Every structure is written in C-alpha cells, then in structure tokens.
Amino acid sequence: MPVSALSPDRLYHRCDPQTLSFETTDELDPKEDSIGQPRAAESLRFGIGIAREGYNIFALGEPGTGKYTLIRSFLDKRARDEKVPPDICYVKNFEDDHRPKILLVSPGSGKALEKDMKEMVENVRRALRAAFENEDYQNRRQSIKQELQEKQQKAFEELQKKAEEDNLTIMRTPSGLSFAPVKDEEVISPEEYEKLPEEERKHLEERVQELQKEAGKIFQQIPQWQREIGEKQKELDREVSQYAVGPVIEELIKKYENNEKVVEHLKDVEKDIIDNLQAFRQPQGGQQNQLQQMIQQQMGGGQEADADSPAMRKYHVNVLVDNSEAEGAPVVYEENPTYQNLVGRVEHQAHMGALFTDFDMIRAGALHRANGGYLILDALKVLRDPFAWEGLKRTLKSGEIKIESLGQMYSLISTVSLEPEPFPLKIKVVLMGQPLIYYLIRHFDPEFSELFKVAADFAQQMDRNEKNQNALAGLIAGAVKHEDMHPFSRGAVARVIEHSARTVGDGEKLSVHMQRLTDLLREADYWASENGNGRVEADDVQKAIDSWIYRSDRLRERMQEQIDRGIIFVDTEGAKIGQINGLSVITLGEFVFGRPSRITARTSMGKGSVVDIEREVEMGGPIHSKGVLILGGYLRARYAWEQPLSLSASLVFEQSYGGIEGDSASSAELYALLSAISKIPIKQSLAVTGSVNQHGQVQPIGGVNEKIEGFFDTCNARGLTSEQGVLIPDANVPHLMLRRDVIEAVEKGQFHIFAVQTIDEGIELLTGMEAGEPDDQGYFPENTVNGIVYKQLAEMAKKRIEFMKPAGEKEGK
Description:
Blueprint: H1 38-49, E1 57-60, H2 67-80, E2 87-91, E3 101-105, H3 109-132, H4 135-165, E4 168-173, E5 176-183, E6 186-187, H5 190-195, H6 198-255, H7 260-275, H8 278-281, H9 290-299, E7 318-321, E8 331-333, H10 339-343, E9 345-346, E10 349-351, E11 354-356, E12 362-363, H11 366-370, E13 374-378, H12 379-384, H13 388-398, E14 400-401, H14 406-409, E15 423-424, E16 428-433, H15 435-444, H16 448-451, E17 454-457, E18 461-463, H17 466-482, H18 490-504, E19 509-511, H19 514-530, H20 538-552, H21 554-564, E20 575-576, E21 579-588, E22 591-605, E23 609-612, H22 613-616, H23 622-639, E24 647-653, H24 666-678, E25 682-683, E26 686-688, E27 691-692, E28 698-699, H25 704-718, E29 725-729, H26 740-747, E30 752-756, H27 759-767, H28 785-804, H29 807-812
Helix pairs in contact: 1-2, 3-6, 4-6, 6-7, 18-20, 19-20, 24-28
C-alpha cells in the first residue's frame, strides 16, 4: 500500500495554552529547584546521607542541566540541621617554632580568643610595668645591688688592711690595681725607694706579689658574685612577674577551662612571657628598624611591648576559619580549586632579599572552610591544576589536611619552612563534571572509585506529560520572580514548553537544560519590554527565538546562498539515475541546521564491492563507513542469494570538503545504488534521511527537524512546486517539531513529509514504480524496481562468469 504524506497535525506536538490552569506565572508557586532529575536526586540523597569513608559524590551531566542548583539545594537543606563546626586557629609552638599548633574552639570563640590574647598582651605589659615600678620592688632590687657592692667593698677593705700592715697602699691604674710603699701616710718616691735597704725592698716586693695574688682572687670572684646577684635579680623578676602575669593568664584559663588545648597553650604563653620579660620592659616605640624586629622575632628575642609589634606576634591567634556567623554545617563552592586554594598555604614576607614567615601567615584552604560540612568542586578545574587532583585525593585518603608548599612536597627546595600541625578532616566532597570526564577518570585512576563511590547522573531531558509541563511552568515562575521579569502569560509558557521539546529534538520529551531555558526567558522579557507589553506573550517568546537564530545563522545563510546561486549542486526538480538528495546537519556551538547534499552512485561489473569514496580518502568517519558496508550485506542477501554479486559500485557525497560522520545517509545511498543498478531515475524533488540495516528496515536518526527544514529552505527559495518533500524514518515521527512555515506549506499541499519503514516503501515514492515483493522461491515480479535490480545483477553475474572462462571455451561455445 502506497505511503501517504503525514498530516500537518503530526508535524508538531503543540502545547495547548488552555490546558494550563493559570493566566500568568504570577498565579503559580515559584519553583527554584531543578526538575526532571529523579535519578540524580535519589543519588544525591543517598550520597549525602551515608556517613561512610569514600562515599563522596560525582555529579555527572552536561553543562546547564541544573547540577549545581540541585546539589546546592540538597546540601543547604541538609546542612541547616547539622552542627556548626568549631573555629580553626593556629598558634605558636613554643617548643618548636617550625611546627605551629592547631587550636579548635567553639564556633565564634576564635575571634574572641584572638581579641583576648591581644588584650592579654596589653594587660600583661601594664601589670608588669606597675609591678616593676613598685617601690617595694625597687627597694628589693637596690638591696640586691648593694649586696654586690658590699661584698666587693669588704674584700677590698680587707686587702687594704693587709697592705697597710706592710706599709703599702692600693692604687688604681688604667691597667688595674697596684701597690706602693708609704711613709708617714704618703707614697714614697722612686728615689727614696731606691735608698731603702735591699732586704727591706726585697720584703716589700714579696708582699706586693702576695697582695697582687689576693687581688687577682678577688677579681676572679667578682663575676661569680655578679652571676649570683643576677640570678637573685632574675628570681626577683620572676617572682614579681608571676605575681603580675599570673592573674591575667588565670582569668583567661578560667574562661577557656573547658578546652584543654587552649589551657595548655595559655600556660605555655605564661612561661614564655616570664622567660622573655625584656620584651615587655622595653619602652614602647623603640628605635629598632623593621629588619631588626623581624630577626628578633625569628630568634625569639625581645622587642616593643606593643600588642601588634613583631615581638608580640608570637602571642597572637591566627584564626583560619571563623564560624561565628554560620548556621549549620558549611557548604563551600571553590571557584578556583588550585592546590593552595584547596589545602591552604603559608605566606612569606620579603624584606631586603630575605623571606620571613610565621604561624600568623598560615592561610586557610577550601578544605578548612568546608570541614565538618560539604565542598563542591568543578572536576575539570581541579584536573587543570597540575597538583590539585593529587592533593585532594591525598587529603581524602589520609583524613587530614597537611599544609605544605609544592617545593617541600616534591623536594624542589631545601629552605626551612613551617610545617603546621595536620588538621583532622571530616568532609563530604561533591565533584561536578561532564560524563566523559567521569568515565575517563574512572578508567585511568584506580583510586577514583575508592574515593567517589556515588555517581549522580543528571539527565538532559524528561518525559513530556502534564505533570512535567506543570513542573516546568513552576520553574519558569521561579525564574521570573528571581530575575524580576515581567509575568509570562500561559500562551508564552506554552511556547516555551514547545521550544523545550524542539531543543531536545523530540516532541514527546522536554529539555532540562536550565541555562538555555533561563536565557530564553530573559530574552523574551527583553522583547516584551521593547514592545511595551505589561507581560510576556507567545509572540515575545517567538521573537526571542527568531532573534537568537538570526544572530547565529550567518554560515547557514551563506551555504543556502551557494545552493541558490548554483555553486553547490542540488536539484529540486526532475529525475536522475543514481542521484539523490541526502540530508545532513551541521552543528556550530548550540546552533544546529540542516543542509541538503547530492549523493551519487556509479556501478559496473566487478567482484561485489561497494566503494565508499569518503572512506577511501579518509574523510568519512567509522560510523559512516559502517553504514556503507551494510549496503553490501543488504544487496547480497536480497539479490545474490543464488548467484555471485558481480557488482562494483562507488558512492560519494558530491562537493563535500570536510569530514562526514554518521549513518543517517545510508538509506539515501542505498536508494541511489538501486537506481544506478536498475537505471530507474529518482525524483529530485524529494530528499531522504534515515539509516538502514541489512534487512532493509529504515532506522531513526537525529536532527530530523533541522534536516527537513534545510531541504525546505532550498525548495522554498526556488519556489515550491507541490511535488517536493522529504522521506524520514517512521520512528522519527514522534520527534517532529517543525517550524511554522514548513507546517503551513504542508497544509497548503506545497510540501510533503513521508514516513517510511522500509527501503521498499521509500523506493516506490522516489521512483513512482512498485517495489515488488518476492514470491515463495525468492523471485521478484518483472517491471518492479526489485525485479529490474535482480535482473541487472543476474546479467552482470553471467557476463562475469563468461568473461572469466578460458578463451577456447568461449569460442567453442
């Protein structure tokens, strides 16, 4: 039975505005979550809920499918009911400067502790100044100094007494002490000394030597006396400082008594203050320069007693993460997931060619900020950084965050730097990426499946039914409210729903590409404003669609112009042997359009081969080549079941200068091949799309709407003759969402769409002849397309057999 053209109502799956139960989107409850993702939603619910090691989540889906929106919605709802994690602080390790310690304090206590420590420095400075300026302290310190002076004075008095017994006196000289003889309480002159008897001079010299030895012993004792006095002064200072500092520190210890590590740190601070009192006793505003300050800070030496001075930095608290304003667990999206932005970093300060750092220059990474909650990352961005992926895996496997520079990690530098105490990690990581990235990582990285056990697969489309259409309307209402747009009428919403189906190329499906949907709403709202409408109507939506196409289709117009000018050969009238109009699609970003192409076939006697010229010159992809090879199987099974297939054929896309991929032209190639074999011409007013299997069944293809419209535009430019049309696979009929002008031409009988299931149905439309069904023995009726093809192939087989015979046998015959 001949195939009839499709009726106009089958060419477009319309959304009747009357089926929508509202006048404008203002009447709808706004919906801001993603729709049409039940599988992904269930995966997220499971992955977020299970608290087991390695159950992190990879959300795979194409960009714009609402991955981030849905993930954020789930995480925010879950996080609100979870405990706020503690603040994270780093402080100085007084036992090892290069290994700063971590303090975990209750949420909001980090900034309070930081402030308390700065105030503590000021309070200690004031308390110490008051204590050391106290009259009692000054008296005790003076008493200790006097003790040294008394010891020295007593020793020298005894030495002087011994000298006087021998008529000697002590004299101070630049080189030290010396002894000189006296007479009548006056030092005798050298001349008088020489006049003394030799025996007396000898006795004096012996006594001088003895007294000098005793003086030397006294001088040897003086450093010891000074040390003893110094220790007594230090002990006094320690006693006084403990009396002054103790209450200040004790007040903080009492405030943070529930945090054992904070109390331990405060005790270390107290000990360090007492050991380094000189830093507090120096006057504020000292004259040392910045480099000296930094050097003394590194050496632990004293400096100004200012709370913000370099010498006092060691008592600071570096608050890495402040959760004072958090409500529930954190949900963090890291826009730039480099290695340092993930795990943190230690900054350095350069001064006069030298680099300095300390615990106060440690900076948090996204893993610190998200600890106790959830971290969302873009998989491709993580993989782009050379070290981020390995750093993330290492952190998740170890369960702790270790801040170290890349130079340290890979032994590229030997400079001593900080090694902050590792931080225990409790986190759920959600990676987002395209399916290709997910499957590539899973294939090439064996550790991936251990760390990301949950895959949330986001679909690109959903079923088009009343429930989903209403859900899409709610989503439109949510976007309108969020973006502060004009309300959309139900006619505009219906047009958006229809365009959503057209976007996925299926009248029975709807797109869940949220980005494209939102862009369309914004542009329709713009045109409504330009037209002075108080609300967005269907015409505004259509204007937005048409404007987007116009901005994108310069190349399509250029190609159509080349066809109209006869530069690219495409016939739309008459009939030709071995020539047919095939249809292909070209994708330029998000813009897809159809283009007719001439396909030709030539045949001759041969060994049963069908040559794909595109494949021979490496312009055809593997799927296209597969489609051509199927043709040989179809011909052998259909026409060469009792004779060899003695055919040599060639197929080519004429004027193709780029690669060709896909098997959607295989049915057109088979029609051209049958025409070339049978010498029956094919109507050039018809174009064909559809793949074919070895049984002659026409299979569905993609881009059916664009392909039909591409041939229609060519015919329309030359003038519609009412003979033109397109053959499509019957299975593609549910996908039809054609343009309004195409449907109007069909309604007027100027253009036709035929849906075929088999090659026989198609060849009848293309040639106007009956295809012919085989009888019980497999023979086809004469004067049918299949009968003529069978006869021609049989003649080729006979001629080839005759040709292959030896010359003598031919002559004898």
